[in-house]
Amino acid sequence: MAIRTEYIHQLRELRDDVVAMASMVDKAIGRSVEALQRQDVNAARQIVVGDMAINRQRWGTEERALLIIATQGPIAGDLRVVAATLHIVTDLERMADHAAGIAKIAIEIADEPLLKPLVDLPRMGDLARGMLNDSISAFIDDDAVAARTIAARDDGVDQLYDQIYRELLTYMLADPGTINRATRLLWAAHNLERIADRVTNICERVVFAVTGEMEENLASTY
After folding, report:
1. Rounded to an integer, what distance in angstroms lies between the CA atom of residue 201 and that of residue 32?
2. Which pTM does this prediction carry?
């Protein structure tokens, strides 16, 4: 009985690690977009430096997951949860890299006025963060139905990205002198679009953990 209790405790700690890492990533995304809006170099640099802490969280979670596999021999649903965790923390770490990428862009263009007030780009960030938080809730709750629904919300992020792309292209065509600033804002938007894509990866892993079936491209098929 004591062994079983410890096993359940380890699985709970594994999920807690994912929640903690997702919270760190969520904050990094929000702060990176805010740093870009405010052209706040100090805040942007803190995000870049803080990326290492997120990397360490990933490594620690991976070690815990591998230890569970090695010592507890999980099977069936438990094994799927552990396997899903290994993939989820990888996607979370990549999201943090995208957030750091936005922060670096904020640093690069801090000496120039913003090409335009940022409206749709922060909306992209809000949508992506909402998807991220809800996907982690679906993971904790073993909710495959919610995971499929969350993945479908990626279409809204893609639509905003297309809108930003068209708008920035208009600026560049009208005035070649805006190309540098417009291109960097486009890169920032692309980072947010990729963050949302990685949330759909998490949703796929949630569905796999719950059902045992790998459903790819949830965003485009749901």
Report:
1. 22
2. 0.92
